[in-house]
């Protein structure tokens, strides 16, 4: 059995700024879910995926009760566009909310205008990995609950009409 690969995650804002959009820093599989940290268009983003066949797959992000930084802001099937691997359904959140530094704040034109000089949190991949452990733990618990409900005899997956407000 091979040892897990130890990766040193960037821990500086300059490394975040130097990375291209959609650059993946973390792609980890543990406890039946897949976890990504990548450079989004304006911030570091985190994503948790379940296999497409999983009972938790296929929902809109606002229908999944998961507490994470700023709340879930994303859900989609992987593989069609973007950096999300195929065969998985992805839920994501970003680190670009009020009080969080945006990569746009450091564009030369913005800085030249005198904007972007505020004291906001500059999230790095290492900080996101450290901060998101509780979200990953909660998501795994939610996934296990969804599996139990789906496996209950006589229980079919609800239709969209049954889950709509």
- The count of β-strands is 5
Percent helix, as a range, is: 10-25%
Regions with little confidence, pLDDT below 50 for 5+ residues: none
Summarize the main sheet. Answer: 5 strands, antiparallel
| Shape estimate | elongated
Q: What is the first-to-last residue Cα distance?
A: 48 Å
Task: From the alpha carbons, calculate the radius of gyration and give it in angstroms.
Answer: 18 Å
Structural class: alpha+beta
Strand content: 15-25%
Give me the strand/helix succession: HEEEEEHHHH
Q: How many discrete domains?
A: 1
3D structure, described in words:
With about 160 residues, the protein is of the alpha+beta class. It contains 5 helices and 5 strands. It has one domain. It has a 5-stranded antiparallel β-sheet with strand order 1-2-3-5-4, with helices on one face.
Set down the secondary structure blueprint:
Elements: H1 13-18, E1 24-30, E2 33-39, E3 44-51, E4 74-77, E5 88-94, H2 108-112, H3 125-131, H4 133-151, H5 160-163
Antiparallel strand pairs: 1-2, 2-3, 3-5, 4-5
Highlighted features:
165 residues; alpha+beta; 5-stranded antiparallel β-sheet; 5 helices; 25% helix; elongated
Quick take:
This protein is α+β, with helices and mostly antiparallel strands and 165 residues long. The chain has one domain. The protein has 5 helices and 5 strands.
């Amino acid at each position: 059995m091979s040892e897990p690969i130890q990766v040193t995650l960037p821990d500086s804002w300059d490394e975040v700024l130097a990375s291209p959009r959609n650059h993946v820093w973390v792609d980890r599989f543990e406890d039946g879910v897949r976890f990504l940290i990548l450079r989004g268009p304006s911030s570091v983003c985190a994503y948790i995926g379940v296999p497409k066949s999983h009972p938790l797959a296929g929902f809109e992000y606002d229908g999944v009760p998961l507490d994470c930084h700023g709340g879930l802001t994303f859900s989609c099937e992987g593989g069609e566009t973007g950096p999300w691997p195929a065969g998985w359904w992805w839920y994501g959140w970003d680190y670009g909310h009020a009080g969080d530094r945006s990569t746009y704040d450091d564009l030369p034109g913005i800085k030249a205008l005198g904007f972007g000089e505020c004291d906001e949190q500059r999230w790095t991949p290492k900080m996101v990995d450290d901060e998101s452990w509780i979200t990953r733990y909660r998501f795994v618990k939610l996934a296990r609950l969804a599996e139990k409900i789906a496996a209950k005899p006589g229980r079919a997956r609800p239709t969209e009409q049954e889950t709509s407000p």
